[in-house]
Amino acid sequence: MQIDIKPQTQIEPNDKMTFLSRTWSKLSNWLERTSGSIFLWPAVLALLFLSIFPLIVSFYISLSRFSIALGGFELKFVGLDNYNRLLFGREQTHFLGLMAPPTPLSLFLFGLVVVGLAVFLVRYIRSSSVSLGGLLGRGVLVIGVAALVWILVHTLGPDGRPGTVAVTLIYVFVGIFFQYTLGLGLALLVVQKLPGRRFFRVVFLLPMMITPVGAAYMFRMVTDTSKGPFAPLWQGAGLTDFSWVTSPWGARVAILLADTWQWTPFMFIVLLAALESQATDVIEAATVDGANHRQIFRHITWPAILPVSLTLILIRMIEAFKIIDLPNVMTNGGPGTATESLTLQSFIAWRALNLGESAAIAYMLLFLVTFIAVSYVMLIRDRVVEKV
Amino acid sequence: MNRLFQRKSILRPSPASMALSYVALGIWTFIVLFPLYWLVVTSLKLPIQVHEGPFYLPFVDFQPSLDAWYYIVAGDLSKDTWRTYLNTVIVAPISAVITLILGTASAYALTRFNYQPRLGAIFTFIGCAALAIVAIAFGVPWLVAIISALVIFFLLLSTIGRRFKRSMGNDDIAFWMISQRMLPPIAVVIPIYILFQQLNLLDTRTALIITYVTINLPIVVWLMRDYLRSIPIELEECAAIDGASRYRIFWSIVLPLAVPGLVATFLFVLVFTWNEYLLALFLSGAKAQTLPYVISSQNATRGPQWWNMSVLILIMIIPVIAMAIVLERYIARGLLVGAVKG
Predict the structure, then answer these.
(1) Which of A254, A288, B14, B20 has a CA between 20 and 30 Å from the CA of residue B272?
(2) How high is the pLDDT of residue B151?
(3) Which A residues 219-278 touch B at CB under 8 Å?
């Protein structure tokens, strides 16, 4: 790669041209060969810049206790104390929830799930592609799911009280179910050639555009039972003194409604773009061949939007685990801790300058999300995407 | 024959299903618009009217006033409003565009090339990064620590790193990217704060732009990866045979075909950065504050100032709505129709 660079004055115009064009072709060759790296690396570097350092630092904070000391602050290393307190100690009922003693029904439900998981494991062992890593991964998956189900059945019963883990899981899964179904339904409606559909498309995007803090305050206004717009309805139902803040499930439903209102557009717009980029000639051909709407949806549209849908659900899931503004503003986590999400619990600990515990909760959330996201990718996404 | 089918478009629904569609769309439109209507009404009320109970129609059951609007736009709070508004208007679009460029490029790379990062190299890198951070924690100047860690990394890479032959694939890279969004922002604000403090970038728009680019990159990569996958590779192969370079293929073939996806993704990233609150709260002081901060500061000691909040929320969404109206038509275009047949 030695290029002789002569002083500029000695180069004849002709030489200069060839020199330039030679350098250019070398450069473009090099660019072509390394194009793979050039496309990928900027994003990777940007992510590395802001991800590794915070990740390691906050992990260290989660292993220590923060206190204000003379002339500043002090971080004392305490090992796994913060985690221990969340899982087994003082904060257990807050974090995992208050577990009711096992009842026949709860044991039956738990048993059903265990049987399902056992079948899943046995099937894998019997299959042809068994590997140690795969077995280990599936073992972790089975144990994790069983533990989560155990917590859910025992805290959601009449005697139990769900902790922030269970509440967050409810927000995530119930919320995503409604958001996806509504988003898909609306996208399918709007993709039709209806007059005035552009109006609907823009209107349906509106909720997403409000800042989450603002949307939370807005819903606090709208759901207010004495001054909100539905106050006459509440009074008519004899619920004048009723307030969302006093009923655990009422408060959770209110937050789920607000969450669905705000995030259905996210599902809607991505699905709409996916539906729009679908080739219409296939559908027309199918119609000519006599396929009805249901068949077209089942065999043409659905497989086409499935990969995007699964990505969408994964992204929304990761975002939904971090829900904080709605419960914080609408109910302040109450009544008690009934609507408190994991991030809100972390935020409250943080506000109390309990930085160690706050970071520990955040890390537990990270473990939980990673566990669920990895299981989701391994079990559902990869399998379906490969099939399509 | 062909004409006949095209004229009576098959995609146009029958009158009955059309009526049903309108009913469903109407219901959801109402659900979407009602809370927004309530914001508009509240922004026209005086504090006393908000506290006395629900009033629905201006001029009919209450006398509207522009007090809150005046207070926010031209009165006492106007300086705060316009200052933070300007910051939002600068930060959000710039970071959205940068994110879109970086993210789409790497999404394209992840769908068209094969990468095999070695496990050994990755672990060495993580080890060196941890080493550097520990060194910084013990008081080594950060520039020295980072450079020496990099040196150690490359030394190790050329010796030990080669031993571990196992490598990861494209999907692992993509998953690593999305996993960067899993930690809640509350856990990373302190380290990020320290980072920007060291770089002397606290309370600048640059810091916000950098942060927003990195936190939104994974979303762009994942969404664009799916859109780009659905673009037939045959087109690119044809162009490559004709002598087009990778960059030209990317710029003049892939990007135009991905416009619906690009627009949808751009809208998201714009909205996310436009509305981001927590990180902005920590990384900016008086100079670089963005609008969401002003909204939440309306929850003062006297209770939430509903009327002011309503005005702020409304003036905050107007530009984004305008953007959505402009961009919506690009989502609608099915550019891929018939592309492969040619």
Answers:
(1) A254
(2) 86
(3) 219-222, 226-232, 261, 266, 269-270, 272-274, 276-278
Peptide bond into A335 cis (omega under 30): yes
What are φ and ψ of residue A193, in 5° steps? -85, 70
As a whole number of angstroms, the distance between CA B309 and CA A378 comes to 44
B175/A377 touch (CB, cutoff 8 Å), yes or no: yes
pLDDT, tens digit (0-9, with 9 covering 90-100), for B74-104: 877 788 888 888 999 999 999 999 999 999 9
> What value of ipTM does the predicted structure carry?
0.80
Chain A hits for B250, CB-CB cut-off 8 Å, are: 39
- CA dihedral defined by B315, B321, B322, B327, rounded to 10 degrees? 160
> Which of A328, A228, A302, A9 has its CA nearest to residue B37?
A228
Torsion of CA B88, A325, B219, A300, to 10 degrees: -120
- Please answer whether residues B249 and B215 qualify as being in contact, where contact means their C-beta atoms are separated by less than 8 angstroms: no
Report d(CA A99, CA A328) in Å as an integer. Answer: 25
User: Is the minimum CB–CB distance between B61 and chain A shorter than 8 Å?
Assistant: no
Q: Are B134 and B158 in contact (CB under 8 A)?
A: no
Residue B315: left (phi > 0), alpha (psi -120 to 50), or beta?
A: alpha
| Segments making up each domain of chain A, as ranges | 160-387
Listed range (A4-18, B178-192, B237-251, B319-333) with the worst mean pLDDT: A4-18
**pTM attached to this predicted model:** 0.83
Q: Where are the beta strands (DSSP E) in chain A?
A: 64-69, 72-77, 97-98, 161-162
The SS3 assignment for B16 reads helix
HEC string of B266-295 equals: HHHHHHHHHHCCHHHHHHCCCCCCCHHHHH
Helix, strand, coil percentages (3-state) for chain A, rounded to 5, are 75, 5, 20
Alpha carbons within 13 angstroms on the beta-carbon side of residue B85 total 17
Instruction: Indicate yes or no: CB of B190 within 8 angstroms of CB of A192.
Output: no
CATH for A160-387? 1.10.3720.10
